[in-house]
Amino acid sequence: MAARVTHAEPPADVVAALRAAGCVFAEDEARLLVEAAGPPAAVDPGRLAALVARRVAGEPLEQVLGWAEFRGLRIEVEPGVFVPRRRTGLLVEAALDVAAGLTGDLVAVDLCCGTGAVGAALAAELRAAGRQHLELHAADLDPAAVRCAARNLAGVGQVHAGDLYGALPTRLRGQVDLLVANAPYVPTSAIAEMPREARDHEPATALDGGTDGLDLHRRIASDAAAWLSARGHLLIETSRGQAPRTAAAMARGGLEPVVRTDDDLDGTVVVGRRPQP
User: Fold this and answer.
1) Which residues does 241 contact at the CB level (< 8 Å), separation at least 6?
2) 39 within some domain
3) In a domain, 37, yes or no
4) What pTM was estimated for this model as a whole?
5) Which residues of 77-93 are buried (b: 16+ CB within 10 A; e: fewer)?
6) Which domain holds residue 183?
7) How confident is the model at residue 8 (pLDDT cuts 50, 70, 90)?
8) Which CATH number does the domain housing residue 148 bear?
9) Which of 35, 150, 152, 273 is most buried, taking the most CB atoms under 10 A from its CB?
10) How many CA atoms lie within 13 A of 123 on its CB side?
């Protein structure tokens, strides 16, 4: 008979297996895996072993658990879906700062939404700030991402399947106040250098940004003005090194860009707005 497992102290063999696989926070991960294997008094040893095997094989912890923590929310994650990163919190913070300067109802779009984490966090934090009237839309090309986003944004926003603006209802043209995008920005040649978790278990469409990493940024920026309201802003996550080129793409699209960085989050976002009279 297998020994009963509790959530207080993860089994030493689980911790050892995770540590041997290179998991830096092996004890914390072990506790989460034990929790996922059943309630404290009835952890399923077989399920725990299966979860540990997936993690040891290199699958991202969030995909193994079925959820990721993002700005205090538990975001559902399927195998094969892009896992929300902590640095993307800057994209939410920048959007909240823009929203603070806008009055009345808001229309927001989360392009390349993945799990819908950005849209979910934005909606939750606007609601907490007393902004009740938000029309939220999210879009992604990947069917698994669309499924996840539909669950994470249930009752909060509408999720659309398709390629960038082609996925959105045409009635949104000229109506979007906050257009946020965490589009892929890894250069194709750098994909092979990414951690195994991302390289082998996340979709290439969520990672590969083309030769210089900015193919999607240019496409988004070139058409953004047609979708933004008169007070609308485009916000794109990028890297410090790529930020000047992301900003240049926005400028070519008729927007005034500003680069924002956060050392604690290791995040970079370019915010573009229509020229002011």
Assistant:
1) none
2) no
3) no
4) 0.91
5) beebbbbbbebbbbbbb
6) 84-273
7) low
8) 3.40.50.150
9) 152
10) 23
